[in-house]
Specification:
Blueprint: E1 7-12, H1 15-26, E2 29-30, H2 40-46, E3 57-61, E4 69-74, E5 87-89, H3 97-114, E6 117-122, E7 132-136, E8 142-145
């Protein structure tokens, strides 16, 4: 069986800003320019890409190569409905109860300082639900702190 890598693609209005947000939120790095170029603007200019297209896409990657690459592409329409797919950011692995929720609250405050917005909190129910926080990134895409 062949194992395939996964890239998560996000439609957005400002790829550079969203890529920078998620890189900081996840401990990723914004993908560097190709070899031979000291910056993306230098590469894009050399390739003849019109300046109006310089922020048409961006990406960030896990520096350890474990997590999926996140690719952001500019689209003309804005987000209008709830995501059918969202990221769960595993911010409290192995923790339970109040200790888990406290760790999630700390992480929520950190990503809020980066531009995220808090939507809701679901507390543990003692049965199936461990507890999580719903957040949105700067463009309104939902994600959970889990």
């Amino acid at each position: 069986m062949t194992v395939r890598a996964v890239q998560v693609t996000v439609d957005c209005a400002d790829p550079a800003a969203l890529s920078a947000f998620w890189a900081e939120a996840l401990g990723y790095v914004v993908d560097p320019p190709p070899p031979g170029f000291d910056s993306w603007p230098a590469a894009l200019e050399a390739w003849g890409v019109p300046q109006s297209e310089w922020n048409s896409r961006s990406a960030c990657s896990d520096p350890d190569g474990v997590g999926p690459r996140l690719f952001f592409q500019r689209v003309p329409e804005s987000k209008s409905v709830k995501n059918r797919l969202h990221l769960d950011v595993r911010a409290a692995p192995g923790l339970t109860g109040e200790e888990r929720m406290e760790a999630l609250e700390v992480e929520a405050e950190r990503v809020r300082s980066l531009g995220a917005t808090r939507v809701s909190r679901t507390d543990p129910d003692g049965r199936m639900e461990a507890g999580f926080l719903v957040m949105t990134d700067p463009e309104g895409n939902e994600f959970c702190l889990d």
